Amino acid sequence: MSLRELKVCLLGDTGVGKSSIVWRFVEDSFDPNINPTIGASFMTKTVQYQNELHKFLIWDTAGQERFRALAPMYYRGSAAAIIVYDITKEESFQTLKNWVKELRQHGPPNIVVAIAGNKCDLSDAREVSEKDAKDYADSIHAIFVETSAKNAININEVFIQISQRIPVIDADGSAVKGFKLRRQPSESTRERTCC
Amino acid sequence: MMMKESKDEFTTSGDRQNAGRTVPNGVSRDQTKTLSLLQGLRLCQDAWAPKSPWDSHGAHAALWGRPSGSFLVVQGSLSQDQLLCVSVADSGEPVKEFPIITTGTALQLTTSHLAFPDLFQLLHFYTLSRDVLPVCLLVPSWVYTLINLPDHLVPLLGPKTWLCPSSDLQANSMTSETQGTAEMPDTVLCTIQVTAANGALCFINPLYLQEHGDDWLAHSPASPVNRPIGLRRDRRLSTTRAWEGRGLKLRSSTLAEDNSSSLDHDKGSSSPVSPSTPEGVVLRRASGTSKEDPLKRASTDSLQSPLPQSPHRVSWIEDKIWLNSPLPSSLLQPPCLELDSLSVSSMEEEFEPASSPSLPSPRFQLADKMKNRLSAVGQALGGLVSPQRRLSKRVQEMAERRAGAFAEAVRGFVEDTLAGGAAPGGTCTEMLQDVRSALTNLREMLFDCPEIQSITDSVGDIPDFELDAMLELALHKVALKPVYTHLYVCLKTARRDDGTLQRLEANKSTLENRSLEELEGAAGAGVPDSSMMDKIQHRWTTMHEAYSPSKKVDTLLKVCKNIYHSMNANAKPGTVFGADDFLPCLTWVLLRSDLAILQVDTDYMMELLDPMQLQGEGGYYLTSLYAALFYISSFQPRLAKRQLSAEAHQSLSQWHRRRTLHGNQSRHSQNRRTIRRHGPLAEDGNSSKESSLSDRLQEALQGLEAELEAVKEEEEGRAGREQAQVPETLDLTCPERTDGERTTGNHRILN
């Protein structure tokens, strides 16, 4: 089985719950074999997708306007970007649109864009309708999911859909920065279990 | 998963090297006793595993009132699997059932993670350790002597004999077992005892040491040997579980049975503290499939447990030790040359343990005795940690060899680099790029070197990037150590010339009195207190002193960890701090540090780090460090509510694009031996065409003034403006865009 490292960057206004989403995604599957990362700004999780292992290297960015110009350093080389907005804050949805535009122009050419409308547990305070957001996402061919990091709704969905959209590995492997785990399964198992 | 593991265990258990890795932690038990129990169980299988019509009902009836630990194995009523029925002498439920499941060739109790190749070994283990059982299994003493019994008598043994404690077999007059009082003077079933007194090899959880120190190691167990079997059995492990039973696994009893000769052989040559009698029981973590974090669990264990009593129980091994040094069996030769690879005293000259991914670092002070023990562990693990050392050593030798091609290349590189600063017209960044491509060239050279290949081949099938990282690290010492101070001087000069250092200083005084909130940090996140800041300053110094960019990154990660620690210190539990909180906090720390030195180190790392390493955690925090420094150096009060200039943005992208191109190049090389050779050429081509980072920065700064004007205008006409124009400087397909195009395309970036 081959392992592919997929850099995923998180964009969105401060306070929309970027890191909470990732935390949710990562925490439930704490893999004792992977060294935990030192903080929530950078986290990893490996999931199996078909006959590949996808190791997500998740790069969080600071959402404050003041730091926004630093984002290119972070999203450069990403296979996917998750742009998060808060369904109870119309403004965060506008920011999202700006991120989409910036990525289209500055981002990696084939970057997979996923839009996550977070805090869907607070639908009473909703300011962004699901349909509007969905229509927008469709218009830019982005993945769209409403999530709740708080209630763990649709968190895995986002990443599953990213896995699905990542281009299939070429026969010569040149499309991606992956490497083959050439070790025999039994051996790689042993690494983890040897006395 | 479990299946694979256990299968694997069994297939490899015969390997000689397992003797080195296996912790033969039993003491003073005559090995023949193990054999005789296994063989005895085998011989009288009909006695304890009666065939149909015996079922669980029959077993319950037969076991009722029997001594605790008495057991029978019968066929389960519903499935193919067998049932282990155990008398637990509990008035409520005197007999308990434990299904034994078969997964492929391995057997295990459904509730346990321990798997065994056959029933005999499973039962044997549970006579020693109860694991998930309420009590240890009780085996009649005559079973041990069964091999001495005339063949014709054996078939006569049935469940009745098995369960009847008074059956007296002529072969041995040993008193039969009654509950908890069986006397087996020469059979000491304390394989799970690890005693310091006897010099058994201990694996010690460093967390435990942190909490409790290592004084307890000096306590000698009262009498670790000759403990009557009954006492052992009766000791309820649950009360002392944290130290007593956890993590113990039967590696494979076949080890003891089938490989006694090789074990015996090994024991002579392996660690001096290895116990005299190898056993099949080794310390290990419960299971790779366990969802639970063994590190966490280990810490819980050790934190909760009181000071352990002798005989000393040892705790988990940190996973990392095994994980990052995946070695195939071929490599696990007795680690003669690397006896003290793990010992505290033999750490590389540079501060804390090298290549932090692989070794838990004993940061705390250790008493000598602990060092010795760690050293002993090092001997056991030597085979696992040695490749890097062997590689480094060999590379060093090669670099010193007279008239060697590699030595010549290194010498040439060092001379060129040291002379490089004086070369007219060459910028510092270009020089660093040259250094980077020279490192890549040297690495390729090493790859093609038979001496190195013999080492890398023996390391086995590890991913290319790990091999790259190992060679890089080995190279740093021979190539970078002689030149790094020179590079520092060049970098510093370049940064002074382009004004970065001056701006850092100026803006530092503007910003340093701002609180975290004023730096856009969220309320709730803490900042390092003064003692933590001292620690961080110390680490910055360490980072600056390191010549290897990889080691610098390791230190950077430690600083970031310290920062997280401070952020969390007074935060509400459960708060998750992402980049929104981390970047301001990092900025806050930087404003209290020597920015000039940090800028030099950051440039050094960014240009010299293997591009492959830029995607991971180190790359992330290096990017954050770079970003925070950039934020400070380009801070403009008048732009306070706006972004950095587009020029700045662009120069960052330029840098990143260059690195990405390089990175992809090496990543894409499928046939490394051929393609890699071409890599450097292409890289040279690229790097000379591209603008250097500092050039870009300079341009950025020159553009700032014009930018300010533009901003003013824009602010006036802000309402109703269309989407911002975005420069197209980042188009990867046209990397050679001219400067003219760049400046014209530059207006501002998005809001």
Automatic annotation (TrEMBL), chain A:
<dbReference type="InterPro" id="IPR005225">
    <property type="entry name" value="Small_GTP-bd"/>
</dbReference>
<dbReference type="GO" id="GO:0003924">
    <property type="term" value="F:GTPase activity"/>
</dbReference>
<comment type="similarity">
    <text>Belongs to the small GTPase superfamily. Rab family.</text>
</comment>
<dbReference type="InterPro" id="IPR027417">
    <property type="entry name" value="P-loop_NTPase"/>
</dbReference>
<keyword id="KW-0449">Lipoprotein</keyword>
<keyword id="KW-0968">Cytoplasmic vesicle</keyword>
<dbReference type="GO" id="GO:0005769">
    <property type="term" value="C:early endosome"/>
</dbReference>
<keyword id="KW-0547">Nucleotide-binding</keyword>
<keyword id="KW-0472">Membrane</keyword>
<dbReference type="GO" id="GO:0005525">
    <property type="term" value="F:GTP binding"/>
</dbReference>
<keyword id="KW-0342">GTP-binding</keyword>
<protein>
    <recommendedName>
        <fullName>Ras-related protein Rab-22A</fullName>
    </recommendedName>
</protein>
<keyword id="KW-0967">Endosome</keyword>
<dbReference type="InterPro" id="IPR001806">
    <property type="entry name" value="Small_GTPase"/>
</dbReference>
<dbReference type="GO" id="GO:0030670">
    <property type="term" value="C:phagocytic vesicle membrane"/>
</dbReference>
<dbReference type="Pfam" id="PF00071">
    <property type="entry name" value="Ras"/>
</dbReference>
<keyword id="KW-0636">Prenylation</keyword>
Automatic annotation (TrEMBL), chain B:
<dbReference type="InterPro" id="IPR036860">
    <property type="entry name" value="SH2_dom_sf"/>
</dbReference>
<feature type="domain" description="VPS9">
    <location>
        <begin position="494"/>
        <end position="641"/>
    </location>
</feature>
<dbReference type="GO" id="GO:0031267">
    <property type="term" value="F:small GTPase binding"/>
</dbReference>
<feature type="region of interest" description="Disordered">
    <location>
        <begin position="1"/>
        <end position="29"/>
    </location>
</feature>
<dbReference type="Pfam" id="PF02204">
    <property type="entry name" value="VPS9"/>
</dbReference>
<dbReference type="InterPro" id="IPR037191">
    <property type="entry name" value="VPS9_dom_sf"/>
</dbReference>
<feature type="region of interest" description="Disordered">
    <location>
        <begin position="654"/>
        <end position="751"/>
    </location>
</feature>
<feature type="compositionally biased region" description="Basic and acidic residues">
    <location>
        <begin position="734"/>
        <end position="744"/>
    </location>
</feature>
<dbReference type="InterPro" id="IPR003123">
    <property type="entry name" value="VPS9"/>
</dbReference>
<dbReference type="GO" id="GO:0005085">
    <property type="term" value="F:guanyl-nucleotide exchange factor activity"/>
</dbReference>
<dbReference type="Pfam" id="PF23268">
    <property type="entry name" value="RIN1"/>
</dbReference>
<feature type="compositionally biased region" description="Polar residues">
    <location>
        <begin position="11"/>
        <end position="20"/>
    </location>
</feature>
<dbReference type="GO" id="GO:0016192">
    <property type="term" value="P:vesicle-mediated transport"/>
</dbReference>
<keyword id="KW-0343">GTPase activation</keyword>
<feature type="compositionally biased region" description="Basic residues">
    <location>
        <begin position="669"/>
        <end position="679"/>
    </location>
</feature>
<feature type="compositionally biased region" description="Basic and acidic residues">
    <location>
        <begin position="290"/>
        <end position="299"/>
    </location>
</feature>
<protein>
    <recommendedName>
        <fullName>VPS9 domain-containing protein</fullName>
    </recommendedName>
</protein>
<feature type="compositionally biased region" description="Basic and acidic residues">
    <location>
        <begin position="1"/>
        <end position="10"/>
    </location>
</feature>
<dbReference type="GO" id="GO:0005829">
    <property type="term" value="C:cytosol"/>
</dbReference>
<feature type="region of interest" description="Disordered">
    <location>
        <begin position="253"/>
        <end position="310"/>
    </location>
</feature>
<dbReference type="GO" id="GO:0005096">
    <property type="term" value="F:GTPase activator activity"/>
</dbReference>
<feature type="compositionally biased region" description="Basic and acidic residues">
    <location>
        <begin position="709"/>
        <end position="721"/>
    </location>
</feature>
